[in-house]
Amino acid sequence: MPDLTFFPDPNVDRVLGVVMELAAEVYVLRDRLSTVERVLERGGTLDRADLESYQPAPEERAQRLAERNALIARILAPMTAASDSPAPPFEPA
Length: 93
Description:
This protein is an all-alpha fold. Helix content is 66%, strand content 0%.
C-alpha cells in the first residue's frame, strides 16, 4: 500500500505515522489495564485465560470507545484546531 501524503514535507507524514502508532499502543495498554482492573474488582485471578475471555458490558464498551475517541481527538487537535500561531496552517499535499 502506498504511503498516504497529507503534508508537503514527507517527513512530517512519517512523524505523524510514528505518533499514531504510539497512540495505538497507548490505547491498547489502557484497554488491557482496564480489563485487569475489572477482573480484579470482580474477585478474579490474574491469569491469561481470565483476561483473554473478558467481555466488557455494553456500557463499559461504550465508555472505552468514548475514551479512545477522546485520545485520538487530543492527539490530532494541534493539526485540526485553529491556533494563535503566526505560521500558516498545514495544508494537505
